[in-house]
Q: What sequence folds into this?
């Protein structure tokens, strides 16, 4: 009975982490597209890398973990990637005006908002 309870708790925790990771990756892709930070040749590959990395981590945390050490490693990886995306999103969101100012001064075009 105790093993089923811990497995259920882990499944709920993994599902919550997966949802948070999906939201953070979607917001990161949105920030990258709307801020025009990357040239058009790099935009699609970077967004695909974010999507593929998150898909691998979500599949790993939800379906490929059976032993306790793989669960711990996958949770740590998801938390690290999630924190990195979260802090990156906050930095991009807070520094939007600074990026627009730099781009307009260097290249002579205005940012799209």
A:
């Amino acid at each position: 009975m105790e093993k089923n309870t811990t497995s259920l708790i882990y499944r709920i925790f993994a599902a919550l982490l997966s949802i948070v990771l999906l939201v953070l990756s979607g917001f990161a892709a949105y920030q990258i597209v709307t801020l025009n930070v990357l040239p058009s040749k790099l935009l699609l590959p970077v967004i695909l890398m974010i999507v593929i990395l998150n898909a691998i981590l979500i599949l790993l945390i939800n379906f490929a973990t059976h032993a306790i050490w793989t669960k711990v490693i996958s949770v740590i990886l998801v938390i690290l990637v999630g924190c990195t995306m979260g802090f990156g999103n906050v930095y991009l969101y807070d520094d939007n005006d600074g990026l627009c100012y730099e781009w307009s001064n260097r290249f002579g075009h205005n940012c799209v908002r």
